[in-house]
TrEMBL record:
<feature type="signal peptide">
    <location>
        <begin position="1"/>
        <end position="19"/>
    </location>
</feature>
<dbReference type="Pfam" id="PF01435">
    <property type="entry name" value="Peptidase_M48"/>
</dbReference>
<keyword id="KW-0479">Metal-binding</keyword>
<dbReference type="GO" id="GO:0008237">
    <property type="term" value="F:metallopeptidase activity"/>
</dbReference>
<keyword id="KW-0645">Protease</keyword>
<dbReference type="InterPro" id="IPR001915">
    <property type="entry name" value="Peptidase_M48"/>
</dbReference>
<keyword id="KW-0482">Metalloprotease</keyword>
<keyword id="KW-0732">Signal</keyword>
<feature type="domain" description="Peptidase M48">
    <location>
        <begin position="83"/>
        <end position="303"/>
    </location>
</feature>
<keyword id="KW-0862">Zinc</keyword>
<protein>
    <submittedName>
        <fullName>M48 family metalloprotease</fullName>
        <ecNumber>3.4.24.-</ecNumber>
    </submittedName>
</protein>
<keyword id="KW-0378">Hydrolase</keyword>
<dbReference type="InterPro" id="IPR051156">
    <property type="entry name" value="Mito/Outer_Membr_Metalloprot"/>
</dbReference>
Length: 449
């Protein structure tokens, strides 16, 4: 199973390397790593008192993992995204001159999960998945202000300190003794306790999140952005578990061509010896370990009550136009990252979802579908398909990905070639401009003779 919340991967071979800019490893990586080490050390220097050595170790370990993540292509360093993001950041900073933003740095993470994070030392993350789901600079600005509020309120240090104290408390020691005395159920009890005491810099209670909402809104209200759209941003986070991998991909329509109709057996399952009522969803944000924005309704209502915010449906229409370019490039970067890793099931899902929702152009969609067929054919022929596309998993709740996985693995090599031919006939008159498409056409020519 693949957990995309963290998205730490190494890769080296791209399909058409000359057409792809490597934006995953920044040219100034040494300077970035030095910066991260410095701000992390500044954070550590502020820690004192009981259990300080253990708290410092948490932050030191986190710094090492972040720097490893940068080297492992977890982040995207795209100049256009940076330019658009910097405009919003600079306006927030100028509107709140009392904040020392010298050591603030926002990184864009290659993750489809709509989320953002503050690590407490000046490093912030915004996931590509969040940029693809928001509809305005205003919404993004509020989320940025919310994360800055976490930093100003020292929530990371406070949260870790509280958890470390809990781990080392007499109450916890007594729980451990009780587990050891139990004749049965030691493993279950121990795992429950470990989960209860696990340390996560980004794990905040609803009260802490509401506190960041409140200060974040104060910062946000000093900007030019529309106040009611702060609520829109939060409401999107409430529906976050509906945003990831829940789009009906309709594979039997996408790959149904006049000259080569869809075959029902491409979606036929083999009977499994195993079944389970307990499903797993690697992308779900409803679990306690991944849901970093709990109880959104509570937070929305508190903002409305504390600041007398009046919703205005016209605000979004006025704001969304200026955000269009950032959303468009974020969608393409999210697809490209999955392409570069050759996670073809995730590529195909995103292509269909974003095309159906009019997030990508027809030219881009058709040229990338062609690329998927090419890569599936190549992987199938070299017996490497399993490296990039897992088999359908009966234990997984990723329904849409499972449909795509089943479809891809049920295709025979000659069927992929025929499907390509039928697909090409369907787009032949569309005048699609793509160097990659021309190369794929040449690749399949001798195969379909």
């Amino acid at each position: 199973m693949r957990i995309f919340c963290i998205c730490i991967f190494l890769f080296s071979n791209f399909l058409f390397s000359q057409a792809i800019n490597n934006e995953y490893i920044p040219p100034n990586i040494d300077a970035i790593e030095s910066f991260l080490k410095r701000i992390n050390q500044n954070q550590i220097n502020k820690i004192s008192g009981e259990f300080s050595s253990k708290i410092k170790k948490v932050f030191k370990d986190r710094d090492e993992k972040i720097r490893e993540a940068i080297e492992d292509s977890t982040y995207v360093f795209n100049s256009k995204i940076k330019e658009d993001l910097d405009q919003i950041l600079q306006h927030i900073y100028k509107s709140n001159p009392e904040i020392n933003t010298t050591d603030f740095n926002f990184f864009i993470k290659n993750s489809i999960i709509p989320n953002a994070a503050c690590y407490g030392d000046g490093m912030f993350e915004i996931n590509l998945g969040l940029l693809t789901k928001l509809e305005s600079n205003d919404e993004l600005a509020f989320i940025i202000c919310h994360e800055i509020a976490h930093k100003l309120l020292n929530h990371s240090i406070k949260g870790i300190t509280k958890r470390i104290r809990s781990i080392n408390s007499e109450e916890t020691k007594e729980k451990v003794k009780q587990i050891k005395r139990n004749k049965y159920g030691q493993t279950r009890a121990a795992l429950s306790l470990i989960d209860e005491l696990s340390i996560d810099i980004l794990d905040y209670s609803k009260e802490v999140e509401a506190e960041a909402d409140s200060l974040g809104f104060v910062l946000f209200s000093k900007t030019k952005y529309s106040k009611p759209l702060a609520l829109k941003a939060l409401e999107k986070l409430r529906r976050v578990d509906e945003m990831v991998l829940y789009h009906d991909v309709k594979i039997d329509s996408v790959f149904n061509f006049k000259s080569y109709p869809f075959k029902d057996y491409w979606l036929k399952e083999t009977t499994s010896l195993f079944d389970t009522s307990e499903k797993i969803n690697d992308f779900s944000l409803v679990s306690d370990t991944l849901k970093t924005h709990p109880e959104i309704e509570f937070r929305v209502n508190k903002l409305i009550s504390d600041f007398n915010i009046v919703k205005d449906v016209n605000d979004l229409k006025a704001a969304e136009y200026h955000y269009k370019n950032l959303r468009e490039i974020s969608n393409m970067k999210s697809i490209q990252f999955a392409f570069d890793l050759k996670f073809l099931d995730l590529v195909l899902y995103q292509l269909i979802e974003k095309y159906d929702n009019k997030e990508i152009t027809a030219d881009y969609y058709y040229s990338k579908i062609a690329e998927v067929l090419y890569l599936v054919y190549k992987a199938k022929k070299s017996h490497e398909l399993g490296k990039y596309v897992p088999q359908k998993n009966s234990f997984s709740d990723e329904k849409q990905l499972n449909i795509i996985r089943l479809f891809i693995h049920n295709l025979e090599l000659n069927e992929i070639a025929k499907m390509w031919s039928a697909f090409y006939k369907s787009i032949e008159g569309k005048n699609i401009e793509s160097d990659n498409l021309n190369k794929i056409i040449e690749f399949f020519k001798p195969i379909n003779k």
